[in-house]
Every structure is written in C-alpha cells, then in structure tokens.
Amino acid sequence: MATPSRSGVFTQATDRRVERFTESISFDRRLYAHDIQGSTAHAQMLAEVGVLTPHERDQICATLQQIGKEIEHDVFPFSIALEDIHMHIEQALIERLGDVGRKLHTGRSRNDQVATDLRLWVRDALDRIKDGLENLQRAFFDRCEGDFEVILPGYTHMQRAQPVLAPHYWLAYCEKLARDIDRVKDCRKRTNVCSLGAAALAGTTLPIDRHDVMQRLKFDSVAGNSLDVSSDRDFVVESAFVLSLIAAHLSTWAEEWILWSTAEFNFLKLPHEFCTGSSIMPQKINPDVLELTRGKSARVIGHLQTLLVLIKGLPLAYNRDLQEDKPPLFDSFETVELCLELAAPLVAGAKLNREGIAAKLDRGYLDATTLMEYLIQKGIAQRTAHHLVGSLVNQAMQQGVSLAELPLETLQAAHPDLDESVREILGVDKAVAAFRSYGSTAPSEVRRQIEIWRSRLYQTDPAVLKSDEGAITLEK
Asked: Which residue spans adopt a coiled-coil conformation according to this UniProt entry (predicted)?
C-alpha cells in the first residue's frame, strides 16, 4: 500500500529496518489532537478560498473528528510503516474518503504541519505549567499567616547568617516562581505564531489564506518567512530552558527541605504521604519525593543541552534531525508537570518544628550584623564596626554565650558608645524587629508583602497599610 508521503519517484519499497529507524509514531502520537485541530482549520481555510467545496470540507472535518475519537479511545490502529501521527491521520482520511481525503494536504507540507502541531502542543503545555506554578505559589503563600511569628535562621554558604521571618522565606519562593511564570508567558508569545501555509520551505503558488488559519487556531501572528518556518525550533529550545530553570528552582527547594527534615536540622516534619520507608530500617521516613524532584531536574537540564546540540549544525531549511526534538521536549514538560503536581500539596502539608527551631535559634550569632549596623548609626565607619563586632563574637564564642549575654563592661571595652540601649537590638527577636529596608524581613515589611501577594494570587482589592512613614498603597 502506497503511503501519502511516498511518491511515484520510488522504484522500491522502504526497507523494514529503515521503517523502524525513522518512525516517530511511538512518541509523536500524543500530537494527534493538535494535528486534527490544525488540519480542521486548514480544511476550513481551503473551503474559504475555493480549493474545497463546502461539502468536501464538512466531510473532512467530520472524519477528522471521528479519527480523533478513535485515537482517544485507543481503538485506532498504529503502524511504523506510516512513520508519524500526521501520516496515520491522513492515511485514515484517504481510506475513508478517497480523493476527498487526498485534497487535505493541498497548500501545506509536513514541515509546516509538524511545526504547527508542535506549537499548538507546546502552547497548551506552557499553560499547564503556568497553572502548576501558580498553585505552588498559593501553597507557599497560604503558610504565611499561620507561620508569621516563626523566626528562621537564614543561611549563606550554609552557615547561619541573619534571622528571617518564616513568611519572608515562603515569599522568596513566590518571587522565584513569579519569574518562572513571566518566562513561561514570554515563551508562549514566541510559540504562538502560525507556521501553517509556509509549506516545505518556499511557500505555495496556491491562493491560501494564512491569516485565516491563524485566527482559527488562535495564534497571535503569522510566521513571516517561509524558509525560516521549517527550521525554526527556537520555541522548543526556549521552552526547554524555561523548564530547566523551573526544575532548578524546585531542586533548590527540595535540597533545603531534605536538610531541614533531618534530625540534625530538625526544622521540618514532612507529610508521611509524600515519604517512603526503608526495606531494612523500620524507623526510616525517607524524603523520596523531594529527592526525586532534585534528581529529575538533571534530566530536564540534560534535555536542554540535547536540544541545543541537535540544532547547532543544521542548515536551512528542514532536516530530519528535527524529529529528535520531541522526546526530550515531551519528557521535560511531563517531568516538570509531575514535580509541580506533587510540590504544592507537599508544601501545604509540611509542618515547621517550632520548638526545635526556637531551641537552636540563638546559635550562630544571627544578631551580629544588626549590632554592626547599630554602631554605624552611632557614627562608626562600617569597616571599623565590622571588625569590632567580629571581636565581640569571638569573645562570646570563647565564653560560650550569646552577644546579648555579654556583660555591658565587655561591650563598652570594645567601644564606649555601646551603652544599655544596645540591649534593644540584641537577640534574634529584636534583631528581626530592627530591620527597616524595603523588601527586608522587617515584620511590617513582610506584612506589606503578604498583602501584595494576596492581591496578586487571589485578585483581592489593593489594601492600604500604615507604617512609620505613613500610608503604603499596595499595588496589584
């Protein structure tokens, strides 16, 4: 049986080994709904310009919908002899409609057809990723009120650095995820361009209307250069980059929470439904979901490299190498989607070990920077104040006490400007209360940020908060 892609120029049948080597139906069948969507729009356009009669258009569109339902219900036969999902659907159309089915491919090539299907699929997948990111943002945000009074040690170089409010930490991830969402939206703009009608590489002599197809498929614009269309996989690579950065952010979060859930940190209790046990050690509660989230990020990042290497040496226009773009792309989307699906309920279900955190909060001299800035406000140069506080920390370490527990005479021996008023900023609670700058962990500033995020995530009306400087209007 001759397939639509095999013309009369060939004098021999395709070697079965070649069929196995070149097939993509094993992975591109997931494009079936988008192929039918694109083909339906193409048929409707062909009828508008007079290439198809209204009756032929209706026959083709109805049969395409029937084929789609058969694929959806897993009763449609697939064969590697037909290479890909595009050939499967077209061959089925021809078998059922004869010459009417053969007319569908008028004015297009598999090159622009594949590009269109893939753009439609990526567009939908990006929308799902955006939804997953927003769900995870809400999971972090929804912890803010309940954890508002909890103070956490903030780290640099994995060493205790300064104290931060727990909601300040939760909102840090909201910010990261917001940038991820912005990148998803930007990527969607460059993805949402109509390739159909560029044909193989040079366009077509037939009177097609590409803008009609653009509108039917809800694309934002039409690709402007037919030669570029066949080779353009920028949107694929950009999607892989966006997913890689999302995966990296998820991996960072997973690593922190893996550490936090250890007996050594004892900051966090993970929900048991997201943990597994050991085959030999009955006491173990292993953070497998977090570990796999961290591990799966490697796959996503590796797929980005695969795609960059795939396109780096390709001349214009289409080359069969581009068939290999789909497995890494599909896997990247599926992996990140699954990670996001599990991340949101895991974040919502975890519990901070408040007693464990508080018991160790005075370790690490988290108020040292606050003491240094207290001296700066007394008129002491920053580098001088930095050295003075360092020497006081050293003395406190030698005595096994906190900075707040150092006697006043010890503080004044370091500098005479250190009087009893220093007690107002020493200690973790007081150090947190001393922060002032925009975007800091100051309680009033964190409260302001919570209200901003409430407005962004739940579309509430902007509020007005009072501060020492007057009214602060919260922007959406």
From this structure: none
Q: Is there a domain that residue 180 lies in?
A: yes
Same structural domain, 308 and 205: yes
Query: What pLDDT, in 10s, does the model give residues 281-290?
Result: 999 999 999 9
Angstrom distance (rounded) from CA 41 to CA 60: 11
Structure tokens at 436: 């002032």
Q: How sure is the predictor about 459, in pLDDT bands with cuts at 50, 70 and 90?
A: confident
Whether the CB-CB separation of 98 and 15 falls below 8 Å is answered with: no
Residue ending a domain, among 301, 336, 359, is 359
Among 49, 74, 106, identify where a domain stops.
106
Catalytic residue among 7, 73, 157, 437: 157
Q: Are residues 115 and 100 in the same domain?
A: no
> What is the maximum span of the chain, computed from C-alpha positions, in angstroms?
101
**Are residues 30 and 115 part of one domain?**
no
Phi, psi of 465 (to 5 degrees): -105, 155
Q: Under the phi-then-psi rule, with left for phi > 0, alpha for psi from -120 to 50, and beta for the rest, what region is 158?
A: left
Residues 212 and 354 in one domain: yes
Taking residue 71's Cβ as centre, other Cβ atoms within 10 Å add up to 20
Supply the DSSP symbol for 262: S
CATH number at residue 388: 1.10.40.30
User: Residue 331 carries which side chain, given as an amino acid letter?
Assistant: D
Task: Give the angle 311-313-315 at the CA atoms, nearest 5°.
Answer: 95
352 & 411 share domain: no
For residues 187 and 287, membership in a common domain is answered with yes
What stretches of 320-442 show up as alpha helix (H) in DSSP? 326-349, 354-359, 368-377, 382-399, 408-414, 428-434
Compute the half-sphere exposure of residue 373: CA atoms within 13 Å on the CB side of its CA: 15
374-393 pLDDT, tens per residue?
Answer: 999 999 999 999 999 999 99
CB atoms inside a 10 Å sphere around CB 139: 20
| pLDDT per residue as tens digits for the range 271-282 | 999 999 999 999
Query: What is the residue range of 422's domain?
Result: 368-426
The alpha carbon torsion through 433, 434, 437, 441 (nearest 10 deg) reads -30
Alpha-carbon torsion (386, 150, 261, 295), positive or negative: negative
Q: Examine the domain organization and report whether 185 and 124 are in the same domain.
A: yes
Residue 142 phi, psi dihedral angles, 5° rounding: -65, -10
Domain count, the chain: 4
Which residue matches tokens 């919570």?
450
157 included as an active-site residue:
yes
CATH number of the domain encompassing residue 35: 1.10.275.10
Q: Can you give the length of the chain in residues?
A: 476
Of 26, 221, 278, 391, catalytic:
278
In 3D, which of 415, 341, 275, 290 has the Cα closest to residue 129?
Answer: 341
CA distance 118 to 109: 14
